[in-house]
Design brief:
This protein is an alpha+beta fold. 33% of the residues lie in helices and 18% in strands. It folds into 3 domains: 46 residues, no CATH class; 80 residues, no CATH class; 40 residues, no CATH class. It has 9 helices and 8 strands. The strands form 3 sheets. Strands 1-2-3-4 form a 4-stranded antiparallel sheet. It has a two-stranded antiparallel ribbon with strand order 5-6. Strands 7-8 form a two-stranded antiparallel sheet.
C-alpha cells in the first residue's frame, strides 16, 4: 500500500499543511482560514491559498506567464502522472524547497525570461534550484543533453550543433562523417562541396 508523503508544516504559497485526512491535506491559510487540498495541487502551485487571494489576484498566479513554466517544472518532478516524470522525478531530479514553498521565489531567483529562451538545468543530473538553472537558448539546451556529441579541435570543445553553426556545415554532414569514423580534425576542417 502506497503511503502519503508527509507534508506537515510545509508551506505552499499562503498555505501551511497541518494534517492529513485521506485523501486531502488540511491546511491553514495566512488569513487564518482552514481549507483542504490534494498533495499534487499544493506541490504544483495550483492551490496556494484558501481562496482569499481570489479577491486580490496575485501577479504570480494570475498574470505572470512564467507561472506555467513553474507548474510544469514542479509537475514533472513530483507527479508520476506526468508523461515526463521518468526523465525528472523518476530519476531523482527535485525542485528545491525554496521554490516549492512559494512560486514567487522561483520568479525572483530566475528573473525575467529573455525572448527565445526556456528553463534549463546547467547540470543535467542536478536539481531545479537557483544555482543550477538558467534561461537558455535552444542551441544551449541542445548542447546540454545527456546524449550530446562533443568534439574538440585546437583546444576548443563544442557540441556538434555548435560546430555546425560556426563552420556553416550542416549538422547531418558532420554526423555522417562521424559515423564513417573520421577524426575530429578531418571532420571539422574538410569543406563541404557546394553544388
Amino acid at each position: 500500500m502506497c503511503r502519503a508523503e508527509n507534508l506537515t508544516g510545509q508551506r505552499f504559497g499562503s498555505l501551511v499543511a497541518e494534517s492529513y485526512n485521506k485523501p486531502k491535506w488540511i491546511c491553514r491559510c495566512d488569513c487564518g482560514s482552514e481549507t483542504t487540498a490534494h498533495a499534487h495541487s499544493l506541490k504544483s502551485g495550483k492551490k496556494a491559498s484558501c481562496g482569499c487571494s481570489r479577491h486580490k489576484p496575485r501577479k504570480t498566479e494570475k498574470q505572470n506567464p512564467l507561472i506555467k513554466i513553474y507548474r510544469s517544472m514542479v509537475f514533472r518532478c513530483t507527479d508520476s502522472r506526468s508523461d515526463f516524470y521518468y526523465r525528472y522525478g523518476g530519476r531523482g531530479i527535485k525542485v528545491c524547497d525554496r521554490w516549492l514553498e512559494d512560486p514567487n521565489n522561483f520568479l525572483t531567483d530566475m528573473g525575467p525570461r529573455p525572448t527565445g529562451t526556456s528553463l534549463d538545468r546547467i547540470d543535467n543530473n542536478g536539481d531545479y534550484c537557483p544555482e543550477n538553472c538558467r534561461w537558455a537558448t535552444k542551441i544551449q539546451q541542445d548542447s546540454n543533453k545527456s546524449n550530446t556529441i562533443f568534439l574538440e579541435l585546437e583546444g576548443r570543445r563544442q557540441s556538434l550543433i555548435e560546430w555546425s553553426i560556426e563552420l556553416r556545415i550542416p549538422w547531418s554532414t558532420l554526423y555522417r562523417r562521424l559515423r564513417l569514423g573520421w577524426s575530429p580534425s578531418k571532420l571539422l576542417t574538410t569543406p563541404v562541396k557546394r553544388r
